[in-house]
Amino acid sequence: xxxxxxxxxxxxxxxGKGQEALGNVTGDPxxxxxxxxxxxxxxxxxxxxxxxxxxxxxxx
Length: 60
What we know:
The protein is an all-alpha fold and 60 residues long. It has helices at residues 3-26, 29-59.
């Protein structure tokens, strides 16, 4: 995983956690759902990059 991609995925995860927490505080289910969705997107990005890393190692 490139450092830039990892940083972007981590930033998206933190953004999602913050939005979900804000939704919890304000009681806004839309913010909660959007925050969880961003965290899910981050997890998918990490998964894709992990697969890329494994393929690259297998080829090398």
